[in-house]
Amino acid sequence: MQAIAAEGDVVVSGATEPEWYYVIVLAGQSNAMAYGEGLPLPDSYDAPHPRIKQLARRNTVTPGGEVCVFNDIIPADHCLHDVQDMSTINHPRADLSKGQYGCVGQGLHIAKKLLPYIPNNAGILLVPCCRGGSAFTQGTEGTFSESTGASQDSARWGVGKPLYQDLLFRTKAALQKNPKNVLLAICWMQGEFDMTNASYAQQPAAFLAMVQQFRADLAGLAAQCHGGSPASVPWICGDTTYAWKQEHGTQYEVVYGAYKGKESQQIYFVPFMTDGSGVNTPTNNPSEDPDIVGSGYYGSASRTNKNWVSSNRPTHFSSWARRGIIPDRMATAILNAAGRTSAFISGKAPEIKPSPGGDTPSGPSADTSVRTISLLPTAGDAAAQGWSIKNGGIQLSDGVFKITKQSNKAWSLTRPVDDAVSLLTRGGRLSCKFRLSGALTNNQFGLGIYLYTDVALPDVVAMTGTGNPFLMSFFTQTTDGKLNLMHHKKAGNTKLGEFGNYSNDWQTLELVFTAGSATVTPKLNGVAGPAFQVIKDSLTVGLNALTLTDITKNATYGVEIESLVLEINAPASS
Fold first, then answer.
1. Based on CB atoms within 10 Å of each CB, which residue in 2, 166, 253, 483 is the most buried?
2. How large is the average pLDDT for residues 145-152?
3. Taking every annotated instance into account, which residue ranges of this chain make up the domain Sialate O-acetylesterase (predicted)?
4. Domain spans in the chain, listed from the N-terminal domain onward
5. Where are the beta strands (DSSP E) in 398-493?
6. Are the C-beta atoms of residues 324 and 112 closer than 8 Å to each other?
7. Residue 207 to residues 162, 163, 381: CA-CA distances in angstroms?
8. Which uninterrupted H or E stretch holds 174?
């Protein structure tokens, strides 16, 4: 792949503040971010550019510098505001008064190499969302907050995980800064830590599920996506170092090999293993990033265990690689995938066309899409679809999810729902096909479904009761040989309908939520029942998460699920 610009691009004098931005998201693990150990060079190679910005995460733009707030637009430099803060891991020869803090990443350099090809009144807004040591198949989940993003201990990728929420929330924020901003590409480098886990083969499916959900969750901002659709925005998936392939050859072919051959899905693999001459791309191995004392440069060779990023030095690309071959190839891949549009060719801003049924964005874009949360065998294992199991196990076998119970514990399977109140304001539908196993036992519980929110209800929705709005608090139970659907209420449960005589056959449940109300209409095995009202209650199961459970630590029926889909309607057109 031919380089598009020389190393060490310099700041162009006289550059002005951009009128709008191409948005480039940076996500993945350590090789996607500032892990280059060589001395930062902010006066030359790593010089910032006034047309290249980033979304803030830390409290100051630079250590001890100007104060900033989460998701502010601030200057981008060599050490971006990723989930993991690398700004304090200083080189021992760094002169902090010259801005030589932290480590070196490639984000700034990818943007620099794209600048000559975008309109003069445009800039590049980087959205850093990387976390070293993160994986799909292992790692701490951490937490997410809309005021600070994913916590630093977040190290688990996957639909609904804090790292995913951070990725989605910050991408939306970048687009909503200006209705002219355009999402150009996602630069993704991840897979190393999955290769160290016995479940490494699950990474490819989990990654694809995340990409698909990300695109679905951006549907309301389609007009601001390259090509007019989130599905047209390329994911540029970068390679890893030679050391990882040497140590985990089989796993490498499964994980990184799965990025290849998906161009039709706008997923592109970018090799970094060697340069154009077949020489291994340099890493933090001291022999590959030596000091150049006569020039005033000090490489990874000058770092020790007090300030290196990892004791296994060849597992991370060097600062020079992050200034050269990596941004060269990533930028070239972006141009090949997204740069042959009229905007690039004409040098003019792309036209932002209104989404169907809506107006041209004039501020934060409204979500005009149907929101879907599902558990489907065709989408891979439950974890890859954003579900988490507690006090039990879930296995996908023969096209069915089978849930097992731990002794003396109630299991719960949860999936975050960040806009639960929209199910009441917009309306929607929950459908589930399930079956119970075990012999008939009077008053025994089967599948329970719960969801409540702590968000205040809008005036349009009237709901009785005291406590939090419970959108779902339903369970199945057998009495007198029948399988019933029950409404769980603190003040006393009520029966909503019957599925019929208890059996181990498949059952279907459908709950239709009427927009702008607390009215729900049930349909059991295709037979509609009378509508009822959901209420506020003081139960504690299912806060902002669709929760499946077997209710009690005592004996319960076994549960198998063939499908579950929750659809929240798009908002009504005004």
1. 166
2. 95
3. 23-219
4. 20-346, 371-568
5. 400-405, 412-416, 428-437, 445-452, 468-479, 482-487
6. no
7. 15, 13, 12
8. helix 162-176
Condensed to tens digits (0 to 9), the pLDDT of residues 55-87 reads 999 999 999 999 999 999 999 999 999 999 999
* Distance between CA atoms of residues 492 and 474, nearest Å: 13
**How many C-beta atoms lie closer than 10 Å to residue 298's C-beta?**
21
Residues with Cβ within 8 Å of 281's Cβ and at least 6 positions away in sequence, in order, are 241, 242, 272, 273, 274, 275, 317, 321, 325, 326
**Rounded CA separation 142/287 (Å):** 36
Q: Does the model's pTM come out above 0.70?
A: no
Q: What pLDDT does residue 508 have?
A: 94
Which CA distances in Å does 30 have to 103, 548, 574?
A: 11, 35, 45
Beta bridge partners of 129: 27
Residues in CB range of 539: below 8 A, 6 or more apart = 450, 452, 467, 470, 473, 488, 490
Could you tell me which residues come within 8 angstroms of residue 277 by beta carbon, excluding any fewer than 6 positions away? none
Q: Would you identify the CATH topology of the domain 371-568?
A: Jelly Rolls (2.60.120)
CA distances from residue 549 to 60, 383, 389 in whole angstroms, order as listed: 44, 16, 10
What is the model's pLDDT at position 10? 35
- 278: number of Cβ within 10 Å: 7
pLDDT over 90 at 6, yes or no? no
- Model confidence over 290-322: pLDDT tens digits? 999 999 999 999 999 999 998 999 999 999 999
Helices (H), 196-318: 203-217, 242-247, 249-255
Specify the DSSP element, H or E, that contains 169.
helix 162-176
pLDDT at 220: 87
Give me 142's structure tokens: 């951490």
Q: pLDDT tens-digit profile of 331-368?
A: 999 999 998 777 777 777 776 655 443 333 333 334 44
Q: Is the dihedral of CA 227, 229, 231, 236 positive or negative?
A: positive
Backbone angles phi, psi at 566, to 5 degrees: -110, 120
> Which residue carries 């609904």 as its tokens?
160
DSSP string, 383-423: GGGT-EEESEEEEEETTEEEEEE-TT---EEEEE-TTTTHH
CB-based burial of residue 565 (10 Å sphere; 0-12 exposed, 13-18 middle, 19+ buried)?
A: middle
Smallest CA-to-CA distance from 378 within 401, 352, 355, 403 is with: 401
Rg (CA), the chain: 26
Query: Can you tell me the distance from the alpha carbon of 233 to that of 392, in angstroms, rounded to the nearest whole number?
Result: 38
Q: In CATH, what is the architecture of 20-346?
A: 3-Layer(aba) Sandwich (3.40)
> Cα–Cα distance between 38 and 116 in angstroms, integer?
27
DSSP 147: T
Q: CB 438: neighbour CB atoms within 10 A? A: 15
pLDDT tier, 408 (very low <50, low <70, confident <90, very high otherwise):
very high
Query: Tokens 């990300």 correspond to what residue?
Result: 214
